[in-house]
Amino acid sequence: MKRRLRPTRQVDLGFLVSAPLRLVFAAGTAAPPEAVHAALAKDTEGWTAWFDAVTTAVPTATGRTVGLRGGIRFEETVLADEPPRRFAYRADATNAPGLRALLEEWALSPTAVGGTRVRWTFAADGPPALRTFLLMSRPGLGLSFRSAVRSLDRRLAS
Fold first, then answer.
1. pTM above 0.85, yes or no
2. HSE-up of 150 (CA within 13 Å, CB side)?
3. Which of 15, 60, 107, 130 has its CA 20 to 30 A from that of 81?
């Protein structure tokens, strides 16, 4: 049975600093920031090829709809698309239990050897039980992120 999507709080980019829960992860790629940004912001459907947790990604007029393993779904609005340094979006609706607000930012910076440092900020709000669950999930989220960045790097190199 599919759980219906329900609206989330419409946060702005300031939520990256004020969110009750912020998880920040970083990894590097050999690809330049322009290529990484294009994969994040322009190749929406391509996310399923390099981010194992993403099962569907479809562009919409203002963002995208995304499905994750386990049946979690999001309707998202892009809040920042600043090539080649930043891509950020918020969840406007989800079926994730308890999630009241979510904003994700992918910040890109060039490395000295021509690659990219990718920093992913996951900013969320929900009841204490959800925040505790997300904190406990931090190692798995970090592993998923690092694996996705390695996979994206291989995809961009081919």
1. yes
2. 7
3. 130
